[in-house]
Write a structure and sequence with these properties.
Elements: H1 16-28, H2 35-43, H3 46-50, H4 54-70, H5 82-89, H6 95-110, H7 117-130, H8 137-145
Helix pairs in contact: 1-4, 1-6, 1-7, 2-6, 5-7, 6-7, 6-8
């Protein structure tokens, strides 16, 4: 399938719908929507955080899936190019809204304790395009480094002090 054929409906820059579509991309990026992922979004009140009603949130997900399915035949996979993802990410340039999207996207992909390549592709593209805010380090560590990798900020004391202890 030619990914250049994919055309997603446009949303106004910084609209709740534009932000929600990025979260929805993270939600469907592994090819399915898992109950644990939707539960994580429900627990955070994702529609409310995005400035949408629950029906509007569901409309964004439905419209995204419809746009993607429009060019996908029954036996094909749908692939989103880095260029298309970059265009979608460019629809959100407000720093506060970007942090909300990163928080919700991170919650989605960590919900099942398994980070799939597609999910990682979406969130890492957002971090690369938008930059990385230091306050988001702990939130995004599992996505950036793997779920069992922990980064401590410099100068943070370890339980054994600042020594390296070999056993």
């Amino acid at each position: 399938m030619n990914t250049d054929e994919i055309s997603l409906r446009p949303y106004p820059v910084n609209s709740p719908h534009a932000a929600a579509r990025i979260v929805a991309l993270a939600l469907i990026a592994n090819g399915r929507i898992k109950a644990v992922e939707t539960a994580a979004l429900d627990a955070l009140d994702a529609p409310g955080m995005l400035g949408l009603s629950r029906p509007q949130w569901h409309d964004v997900i439905r419209d995204l899936c419809a746009d993607l399915l429009e060019v996908t035949r029954f036996d094909d996979e749908c692939c989103i190019s880095a260029d298309l993802l970059d265009r979608v990410l460019s629809e959100v340039d407000d720093a506060v809204q970007r942090r909300v999207v990163l928080r919700l996207g991170s919650a989605v992909i960590q919900a099942d304790r398994q980070i799939d390549d597609g999910e990682s592709f979406v969130l890492l593209a957002a971090v690369e395009r938008w930059g990385f805010h230091p306050d988001d380090q702990a939130l995004l560590e599992p996505v950036l480094y793997g779920s069992d990798f922990l980064v401590r900020p410099r100068g943070t004391p370890h339980e054994d002090g600042h020594r390296l202890r070999l056993r």
